[in-house]
Protein: Cytochrome b-c1 complex subunit Rieske, mitochondrial
Organism: Phaffia rhodozyma
Amino acid sequence: MSAAFRSSTRFINALPTASLTSRGAAPFSKGVSVNLIAQHDSHGEYDPMHRAGKAASFALKFGRSTVRSGINAAPSVGRRMIHTSVAAERDPVASPDFSKYRASSSSTNRNLSYFMIGSMGTLTAAAAKSTVVDLVTTLSASADVLALAKLEVATSSIPEGKNVVVSWRGKPVFIRHRTAEEVEEANAVDMKTLRDPQADSERVQKPDWLVMIGVCTHLGCVPIGEAGDFGGWFCPCHGSHYDISGRIRKGPAPLNLEVPSYSFSDDNETLTIG
């Protein structure tokens, strides 16, 4: 292979593929013998006359330019690298060295681990608290439901010996401010004569206040107050009679009138039902 390098006005040509001897004899090339004569064949194409020592025209040409003065560059021999930059100096099968990435002190990593664990724990606790609060808020009763769940009644608005009927959770509630005579009458009843035996003290928190759900235990009618054979309540639907303590005394009702959950304020001015 021939190549030309241009430097100012001169050409520098690489070593040609073939050269002539000083007297123009047969051409020669390094490592190639041209003195061998081919075997004779019937066509006469490989007789000695075809190798008269004349070199091929392409072997003596140097490109487009005519050589005026030739400087042949000597072939160079160099070390071939696997990589294009530098030779590999490390053993490719050796384990990588990560010593420069390791912390100089184990306590540094420990402190960082404690910090990360504490931070993640705090965030998790905050997220859990928010979730629980939202869940409880969603499941808890709304303000209107709570308003229906409890009912407050001023005791001063109910005179002694009178009944008041209020609505609580869609049901009528009887509140009776009893007199001392009514309390004595309720306590004087023989328990053996009652269909649903229950002492008066078990049905009241304060002797002079009686609180009951005004629904007959027979078929759910609403009894009438201050009526009946026992001076208490009378159910006009099927004739059930209740005494001044709300206990069934006569008629088809099987049980006493139900007593709801209620409480009094510290000054006894407010009665809270529910």
Notes: The longest strand covers residues 171-177.
